[in-house]
Fold this sequence. Notes:
By secondary structure, the chain is mainly alpha-helical. The protein contains five helices and three strands, in the order E-H-H-E-E-H-H-H. The chain has a three-stranded antiparallel beta sheet. A hairpin with a 2-residue loop joins strand 2 and strand 3. Helix 4 (about 65-75) packs antiparallel against helix 5 (about 80-120). The chain is elongated. The termini are far apart.
Amino acid sequence: MADDRLSFKEMCAEFDVTPRTLRYYEYIELLQPDREGRSRFYGPRECARMKLILRGRKFGFQLEDIRQWLLIYEHEGTEAQMRAWIELADGQLKELDEQRKQLDEARDELQGLRDSVAAELNG
C-alpha cells in the first residue's frame, strides 16, 4: 500500500511546489493526506487532486472555486462536477478575454508613447 503513496517531501518534488504551498492546500482542505504520526502520505486520490488544483491555478481559477468544484464531485458525482466545470470555465474565459483587452490597450498606449519619444529624439 505504501508503494503508491508519496511522502511530504516527494509530493513537493513531484509537483514542484513549496512545503508552505502544500501545507496551505491542506489547511484549506484541498488535500487530505494520510497521517502516520507526524508523517504525511499522499495517495493516488491526493495526487489526482493536486494535478487538478495546479491546472486550475494555471487557468487563473481562485483556490476557493477549485475547492468548491472538488467538493461537488464528492457530494454530487461526476456529471454535476462537469456541469459546474463548464460554468466555471465560461466565467474564466470571459475574465481572460477582458484581461487580454486591457493588456492590448495598455500595450498600444505604451507603443504610441515609445514611438512619439523616439520620433522626438530623432527629429
